[in-house]
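Q: Focus on the shape:
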Amino acid sequence: MKFPDITALPTATRHLATLENSAARSAVAARHLADPADGAELLSVAARHLADLPDSARPAVALRDLPPVLAARPQHGVGDLAQKRVRPGHRQMAVPRSRSRGRGAPANMPALLTGRSRGEGVTLVPVGQPCMPGGTVLPEPPPWLTMPAPADLSATPPEDLPMTYTGDVQVGGPADVRELPALTICKLAVGPYDNNAYLLRCTETGEGLLIDAAADADRLLALVADQPLRSIVTTHQHGDHWQALEQLRKVTGADVIAHPLDAPALPVPVDHTVEHGDTITFGAVTLEVIHLRGHTPGSIALLYDGGEAGHHLFTGDSLFPGGVGNTWKDSQRFTQLYTDVVERVFDRLPDETWVYPGHGKDTTLGVERPALPEWKARGW
């Protein structure tokens, strides 16, 4: 996607602001806004938007996608750009060099794309319009930057956006959201044991399912909001996975689901028990129940087969990055859990299967598969 002239830029950058999150914006901003034919003019607009992104989202695209007029001079600051490709009838205004780089930016990263606050960078000011003291940018862009863009701009978003979901969440921080064609996955860290709660929502119907109402009921209710919640699945009986279950059920009216061997330990009656191979449906989405014995007698994992969107496995405390769940040095329990994880998960699912555990970061089966012999040998 190329924008033919600078009149398209304001709408283009507003379009970028609607993308999934900062990483998605960053990945396309410089590539599609930086046109060598316009040089510093185009980059000045892109910079004001990139400046709002987190530090971690900027360096990769700044160095990769700069137009030749800037990439050829990475050692120079904003002041050096003032002589480059200035729009006829306008004069260039630069932020002082001391303010042109974000803290910790790479030494060879052009200052234009590393401003820390909104407006740091270079802008263009029509002749006759005074610059503000100290080189700061004007609060409003000049009129020629507010012309409409082509009508079909928002209808053809870039197709090469990277996946921005990482699964790296912190207690007290925001949920991480992953959007699949038929399912949205929201991961939220809650409680004193850094539990992961997963709100799954059917794209077609809006109906939801919560995996482990672990803690922080108010935060989980805020995540659910006013959308329908059909079921709450508890992956196993340990108390850190159901501290908010009673309140969530009371407020939402959702059915409670668990394996029959762990159901008696829960603080509320279980509406539906599930065994290995059963399915759970909400909206148009179906999950398969996988019984993984060992961490507790009734521990279960839930498998979503998204077709071209891949396999997604919610494992509770039975499988983590680096090993299976805790079996408290009981060799029999470990052997049972290891065997179930190998036979019911690794032997039947592809390496690309994404694993969403009950605590901590996500992983994939492909990352963990080479370590299976080591897990077996060490016994945990």
Remarks:
- The longest strand covers residues 183-190.
- The mean pLDDT is 72.
